[in-house]
Write a structure and sequence with these properties.
Layout lengths: L2 H8 L2 E6 L13 E3 L4 E4 L8 E8 L5 E6 L3 E4 L7 E10 L7 E2 L3 E5 L9 E5 L10 E6 L4 E5 L5 E5 L9 E5 L5 E5 L2 E5 L5 E4 L7 E7 L5 E12 L11 E12 L5 E6 H4 L7 H5 L7 E2 L3 E7 L4 E6 L4 E6 L5 E6 L19 E5 L5 E5 L10 E8 L4 E9 L11 E4 L5 E4 L5 E5 L5 E9 L2 E2 L5 E4 L7 E5 L2 E3 L4 E3 L5 E8 L5 E9 L2 E10 L4 E7 L9 E9 L7 E11 L12 H12 L18 H14 L1
């Protein structure tokens, strides 16, 4: 065989060798213990694989699931159950009929439900055609833990009360798959496994009711503050002239726990604005509960902060930059300056949210009004004309009145999820006020109280894997053959989250290329990197890093050993084939060293005497 014809047949190629072991990319990790039944599986790409057979087995029941998939990942939202051990493995299938390559068997456990899990969960009025599908994430406040239920009330995820984030009360499910909430005096962001991603600094020990994360990766929260102030005229005659008032400070922290913004109720509300009821019931023990705030939210569109103060039956809008109080809405009896002419007749409200249309949505507990009937209301307001009106409401029946707690959450399909606070009930209603899902939770015959709930498609908004095009060779000696010097990688999105993914190509930890690509939900997106202008030296380490912009910690990294512009058989990378290459190849074979893929001339995945014979013949044919 002529050397020129060999070169024409084999081509001048660039070999990029993947050095990771198969087990390095396996998810869930071998031996993992999980507190959820929706599981994302991922494994390393297998060279030349056309597809994969995925096998999952319940070791207790023997039940087995087999799937044929094209990508190196699978998201399963069914099949798995609590208190069970599962094994799984994959087999790579090849187009040429080659014997499938199968991985070793991996295992994981799904823990038993704790003994404090509610003993009675009932779902009624479920209309599958009108209800939004998914998992309802909520706090079981009176039981000191949080979790998620499917539409039939089956538990999908829990945060154990004795975990790293103790007595965790859910407030927000994030697009990065993490969860925000709080325990006694501490705010957290945790992952599904309960690992703490963020915690408020120990100097802050008075957090209560609410913490939320913004798209700017900052955290807003409520903390209590106490000042000695005058004793109003409604005070008991036995009390001193000054008593401790408890107000609130709304704070913003960055990811490092630094406070970057705050707003103190004592600095912006007049002390003549108080609810006389809480003065009348004050006995001198502890503090007079002046504001009792229960929610804070930052609205990017208006660059404003909206806060809810229960004991003043008031919602306040604050300009973020200047900290000016823009307006107050609510009970005018406790308000010196009236901003809106209409009396919306709400009282002791909770959980104010700003909708996409700019309207406000919140739970009106309607406490101390006649009749006491809790409701969810959507309010449209016009700042310029000082007008506000209720554009939608859903009034709860008498038996679902909740004097405290509660939330309303607008769903993607236009329905509203209503958490009826102390009653243990959560309802989904349409815009026409039809109840299409009704959850009731009890434990030992008592209603389980809840602050909030949220509906998500599943537990994994980020569930992706990455494959490289033209990935060939063997497990021990695998590489990419770029077409026209283009490195091609595909991001396989298995879930409902979407957004920008950043990617970076590095050589020996030095960045040489970077960009981003938008990935839609449940779709694949392909990126291309031009290698033709990159100076790649033999033996360089190349790394491709890919991660979602909103979840840097979920980066996937692929390392390459690089042999630049190598001919097969050119072991010393000098551009020619000669006796020196034969000597190097012989030494590599004797040392059982397959690190240089240019020595595998017949591409059988190993280097042996057959490769030496082929190299000698090529050299002789070229003389």
């Amino acid at each position: 065989m002529e050397l020129n014809s060999y070169m024409s047949y084999m081509k001048k190629i660039m070999l990029l060798v993947i050095c990771t072991s198969l087990g390095a990319e396996m998810l869930p990790e071998n031996g993992a213990e999980l507190n959820y039944t929706q599981v994302f599986f991922r494994w390393s790409q297998i060279p030349n694989a056309e597809s994969y057979q995925f096998t999952l087995q319940n070791m207790e029941t023997g039940e087995e699931l087999e799937l044929n998939v094209l990508e190196n990942s699978v998201l399963r939202t069914d099949f798995m159950d609590w208190s069970s051990t599962y094994t799984w493995f994959i087999c790579a299938l090849f187009t040429d009929g080659e014997t499938p390559f199968c991985s070793e068997i991996y295992s994981f456990d799904i823990n038993p439900l704790p003994d404090y899990f509610p003993d009675s969960i009932n779902v009624s009025n479920y209309d599958e055609s009108l209800s939004q599908d998914g998992v309802t994430v909520m706090d079981f406040e009176s039981l000191d833990f949080s979790g998620g239920l499917d539409k039939n009330g089956n538990p999908i995820w829990i945060v154990e009360r004795e975990g790293l984030a103790q007595d965790f009360k859910f407030t927000q499910f994030l697009e990065n798959g993490n969860v925000v909430g709080f325990g006694p005096g501490v705010g957290y962001e945790i992952d599904l496994d309960g690992n703490i991603i963020f915690a408020t600094p120990p100097t802050l020990n008075s957090l209560h009711h609410h913490i939320t994360k913004t798209s700017n990766n900052t955290y807003f929260l409520i903390s209590a503050t106490v000042e000695d102030q005058y004793c109003p005229e409604e005070c008991n005659d036995m009390l001193p002239d000054e008593i401790p008032w408890q107000g609130d400070i709304f704070r913003e922290f960055d990811q490092d726990g630094n406070e970057i913004w705050s707003w103190n109720t004592f600095d912006y509300y007049d002390l003549t604005e108080y609810n006389p009821y809480y003065v009348e019931i004050y006995t001198g023990d502890l503090e007079m509960d002046w504001t009792h705030s229960n929610s804070v939210v930052f609205d990017e569109n208006s660059a404003s902060v909206f806060v809810s103060l229960r004991n003043l039956s008031r919602i306040t809008k604050i300009d973020y930059d200047s900290k000016d109080l823009i307006w107050n809405m609510g009970q005018t009896d406790f308000m010196n300056e009236i901003y809106f002419e209409e009396d919306l007749n709400f009282s002791q409200q909770h959980s104010v949210q700003v909708l996409d249309n700019g309207n406000l949505l919140f739970f009106d507990n309607h406490r101390y009004l006649n009749p006491e009937l809790s409701r969810c209301i959507e309010v449209e307001y016009d700042e310029a004309n000082h007008s506000a009106s209720i554009v939608w409401e859903h009034e709860l029946p008498t038996e679902l009145f909740s004097g405290s707690r509660g939330e309303c959450d607008r769903l993607d399909n236009g329905n509203t999820l209503i958490t009826a606070g102390r009653t243990g009930n959560t309802l989904e209603v349409t815009s026409d006020n039809e109840v299409v899902w009704h959850l009731e939770v009890e434990n030992s015959g008592f209603d389980v109280t809840m602050y909030r709930s949220e509906r998500i498609p599943n537990l994994h908004p980020i569930a992706y894997s990455v494959t490289l095009a033209n990935f060939t060779g063997s497990i021990e000696n695998s590489y990419v053959e770029p077409t026209d010097d283009i490195l091609e990688a595909t991001i396989h999105n298995n879930s409902w989250g979407e957004g920008w993914f950043n990617y970076t190509l590095l050589i020996n930890d030095v960045e040489i290329a970077s960009d981003n690509i938008f990935v839609n939900s449940f779709e694949n997106s392909t990126l291309n990197i031009d290698l033709s202008t990159i100076d790649i030296n033999s033996g360089s380490i190349m790394t491709l890093e890919i991660y979602p912009e909103n979840a840097v910690e979920k980066v996937q990294s692929i390392d390459f050993s690089v042999y630049s512009s190598n001919l097969l058989g050119d072991l010393n990378n000098d551009g020619t084939l000669n006796i020196l290459d034969i000597v190097i190849l012989a030494n590599l074979i004797l040392a059982d060293d397959s690190s240089n893929p240019a020595g595998d001339l017949n591409n059988d995945g190993s280097q042996n005497i057959l490769d030496i014979v082929l190299l000698i013949n090529i050299i002789l044919d070229g003389l």
